[in-house]
Design goal:
Chain lengths: 113, 113
């Protein structure tokens, strides 16, 4: 059982470039989330989805976009990379409400130079 | 929105000693409370959670936490720390009517031999 899989694990982008962070889960979870983790700041919610075709903004959505065409996949898109987006990005999923705890992926470390 | 504070950035304990990591939350009603652990280079793993009922909850790896409504706290404890417990620990709070889990800034635990 793979759980939540994130790719790539590491990436260096130049300012202004675009990229998509991939997230796939094989647990048939309805709820999926994207967080960013910055040193000393904990995790901040970027976007979340409660099911295929439904997404909503979290605490820090600016500069990002998401889509949810299937239950399994929840990609995060950066359109014009900026140094402020240098961070570690985590995807997570959960099956139901109430939330019984998230399953996290292993993260993508992104550096924008 | 709900929020969570972890007052201790870094704690060092000796192997075999007891451990208590502090967590204080802010929320108008009874929240959902969680503790996660993150090993270096890894995603977060759920240690335990509190929804309702018994205020002392037990989790994996011998950890427990106690919900104290009067103090708005959810401190994590372990009677005897092992060297493998060295990691970063995050407290998290979620409201019972939203999809926004808020994380504390984390407490890094160092275990001395």
């Amino acid at each position: 059982n793979a759980g939540v899989t994130q790719t790539p694990k590491f990436r260096i982008l130049k300012i202004g470039q675009s990229m998509t962070l991939q997230c796939t889960q094989d647990m048939n979870h309805n709820y999926m989330y994207w967080y960013r983790q910055d040193p000393g700041m904990g995790l901040k919610l970027i976007y979340y989805s409660v099911g295929a075709g439904i997404t909503d903004k979290g605490e820090v959505p600016n500069g990002y976009n998401v889509s949810r065409s299937t239950t399994e996949d929840f990609p995060l898109r950066l359109e014009l990379a900026a140094p402020s987006q240098t961070s570690v990005y985590f995807c997570a999923s959960s099956p139901t409400r109430p939330n019984y705890g998230y399953t996290f992926g292993s993260g993508t470390r992104l550096t924008v130079v | 929105a709900q929020s969570v504070t972890q007052p201790d950035i870094h704690i060092t304990v000796s192997e075999g000693a007891s451990l208590e990591l502090r967590c204080n939350y802010s929320y108008g009603a009874t929240p959902y409370l969680f503790w996660y652990v993150q090993s270096p280079g890894q995603g977060l793993q759920l240690l335990l959670k509190y929804f309702s009922g018994d205020t002392l909850v037990h989790g994996i790896k011998g950890f427990e936490a106690e919900f104290k409504r009067s103090q708005s706290s959810f401190n994590l404890r372990k009677p005897s720390v092992h060297w493998s417990d060295a990691a970063e620990y995050f407290c998290a709070v979620e409201g019972n009517n939203n999809n926004d889990m808020r994380f504390g800034a984390g407490t890094r635990l160092t275990v001395k031999p």
